[in-house]
Amino acid sequence: MEVWPGSPYPLGANYDGGGTNFALFSEVAERVELCLFDENDRETRVDLPEREALIWHGYLPRVRPGQRYGFRVHGPYEPEAGLRCNPAKLLLDPYSKAIDGHVRWNEAVFGYRFGDPRSLNTTDSAPYMPRSVVVNPFFDWTGDRTLRIPYHETVIYEAHVKGMTMTHPDIPEEVRGTYSGLVHPVVIKHLKDLGVTAVELMPVHQFVHDHALEQRGLRNYWGYNTIGFFAPHNDYASFGTRGEQVQEFKTMVKQLHRAGIEVILDVVYNHTAEGNHLGPTLSFRGIDNLNYYRVVPDQPEFYYDTTGTGNSLNVRAHESLRLIMDSLRYWVLEMHVDGFRFDLASALAREFHAVDRLAAFFDLVNQDPVVSQVKLIAEPWDVGEGGYQVGGFPSLWTEWNGKYRDTVREPRRVRLALHRLVGPVREGQPPPDRVDQLRHRPRRLHPERPRLLQREAQRGQRRGQPRRGKPQPVVEPRRRGPHRGRRDPRAAGAAEAQLHRDAAAVAGGPDAVARRRARPHPARQQQRVLPGQRAGVGGLGRGAGELGAHRVRRQGGGAAPRSPGVPQAPVLPGPPDPRLEHRGHRLAPARRAADERGGLEHRVRPIVGHLPER
Fold it and tell me: Residue 530's pLDDT is what?
């Protein structure tokens, strides 16, 4: 096969109309083989002939889009020194624009033999590995434009590409759960009716289904297990995985822009799917382990992990930083996305041990003429020491204000709402830019409207998987007496109605919150019991409903506080109000109250962007 010297830049496989240039970074490699696969999966190996600035490269004429390929890297295999090259392992290109197939879990995809982590496994992994794909870079973007909706006008709808449409009855079955399904007219109308200006797509980078999940017959639904930072996930494609997913993704973005909706990607640059030192060798580990991953300084066999996944990208190394920045620019320039939400963003700022707001990653982002001009949203924490950094990110960044979500959805803490609305203010700094959440990663998506305030406990069937992550706040109204500890439908309805009123007050701004705080506490108001009427949750209308809600919010089961000098009417157990019909975890009055006000989702905006100048 004819091979020309080619160019060391750009990295990856790049088709120019006459052939394809291949370029791969590896500081430790002694030899790099390019592996091409035909329609019958027969492998042809070609040595990349040139090495320049630690980049191996070559140009193959007449290699066209759709060609599947991978790499084999020859070099030192010394796990105790952090070196894990193994030419028996077929490796995905870190710059793959598309990936065909999935990992088929077998001992062959691991660099060692089971039971001996320092051994060398020489079994060929190619039969069990997906393939990188050469893609067609050309696409008709005619008429597409950057929307640049300001933060204070932005309403973000977090969506899962598959979950958004997989069970929607009005969407054709062949496009459900795909990029095409996400821009079906039914979905577009739904988003526009809600006033949504941007969709934040949960991970769409190519990810791996974990071995532990597949052993139990499960799949990785959420996608926070990336292996390809340039490739749209192939499970969400409706008509092919040999580059067609790239064209389909671009079409989705173009259609959403045409509807006036921005596209924000939830990206995971803090770790990869290769796990810890006992994980598989799929790509980065076999190419240049020490440049791509952080290792324990005195024990490079092991990984320094601040993500809870087994590894962390080495943001101190120039090659990892280049990978991240090249990926971000690619998604903006080639895929036309409008912003990014960075998963565990604090991990990207750990150059040594502590989180550093002056880290090289932030410097690169702030000076980049492309990336600095799109929406940058940080999940401002990781699992390492000092990782909680809400309010600590530099300019140009906004942050998830998770405490706002917890406060608005928890009636007992509404007094903190105004503080959460402003966000954490650090000495000598203005209030930070932030994204105020109402709901994160709902377990179910309703075809009519998003469940912004989901009241049920997160107890549903976990399909054999243990509960992980931060638990969602759940209100559990309780009653006294022999039934203490059980859920009271009447009190639950009052509590939810109270939540709607308090959240609406927060949406009205500081003045509305102040007016609400100025009202006498319902438990301290004098109650009038008319002749023939019995006091209780069902007998005093709105006032009693508020009283019941405040009571269930008190801890310890004691009586409601008395105000000195204010007589208190006796509260007797009245008959159930027929309006308070119990429907599972929701109550009719709370639903009617929200509908009478036009629906809470139209009153409380999930995004509060920049605060006005004071």
Answer: 44
Q: What is the pLDDT of residue 568?
A: 42
CA distance 445 to 442: 7
Whole-angstrom distance, CA of residue 263 vs CA of residue 157: 10
Q: What is the CA radius of gyration of the chain?
A: 28
**Rounded to whole angstroms, how far apart are CA atoms 189 and 313?**
40
Cα(481)–Cα(95) distance, integer angstroms = 64
Looking up tokens 């559990």 gives 476
Statement: residue 494 has pLDDT above 80: no
Average pLDDT (468-486) is: 42
Asked if 493 contacts 580 with a C-beta cutoff of 8 angstroms, the reply is yes
Residue 472 has pLDDT above 50, yes or no: no
> Does pLDDT of 279 surpass 90?
yes
Token pair of 576, please?
């159930």
Per-residue exposure over 108-117, b if at least 16 CB sit within 10 Å of its own CB, e if not: bbbbbeeeee
Average pLDDT over residues 45-56: 97
Nearest to 304 by CA among 281, 267, 271: 271
Token pair, residue 466, equals 């243990």
* 17-37 pLDDT tens trace: 999 999 999 999 999 999 999
List phi, psi (to 5°) of 582: -85, 125
* pLDDT value of residue 446: 38
Q: Hey, which bits of 297-374 come out as E strands?
A: 299-303, 339-342
Distance between CA atoms of 187 and 51, rounded to whole angstroms?
49
Cis peptide leading into residue 10 (ω within 30°): yes
Torsion of CA 459, 461, 465, 469, to 10 degrees: -30
Residue in 239, 244, 242, 161 with CA at minimum distance from that of residue 199: 161
Q: What is the mean pLDDT of residues 154-181?
A: 96
| Element containing residue 13 per DSSP (H, E) | strand 12-15
Amino acid at 82: G
- The burial class, CB within 10 Å (0-12 / 13-18 / 19+), for 578 is exposed
Instruction: Give the integer Cα–Cα distance in Å for 587 and 595.
Output: 13
Instruction: Decide if 343 contacts 377 (C-beta within 8 A).
Output: no
More confident residue, 320 or 417: 320
pTM > 0.85: yes or no:
no
**Sheet holding 31-37: strands in order across?**
43-47, 31-37, 68-74, 131-133, 99-100
pLDDT value of position 76: 98
In degrees, rounded to 5, the angle at the alpha carbon of residue 17 between the alpha carbons of residues 12 and 23 is 15
- Give catalytic residues, as residue numbers: 343, 379
Per-residue pLDDT tens over the stretch 137-149: 999 999 999 999 9
How many Å separate Cα 6 from the centre of its chain?
38
Question: Measuring CA to CA, how many Å separate 332 from each of 9, 41, 136, 146, 340?
Answer: 19, 34, 17, 10, 10
Distance CA 199, CA 606 (A): 12
Tokens of 589: 């009055």
- pLDDT at site 500: 53
Under DSSP, the state recorded for 460 is S
Helix (H) or strand (E) holding 541: helix 541-553
